[in-house]
Amino acid sequence: MAVYVNNLTINSGETFSQQLTILDSSGEVLNLTGYAASSALRKHAASTSKTTDFTVGITSAVEGLITLSLDASNTSTIKNGRYVYDVLLITSANIKSIVSEGMVLVRTGITS
Question: Has domain 4-107 been given CATH number 3.40.50.10540?
Answer without folding.
Answer: no
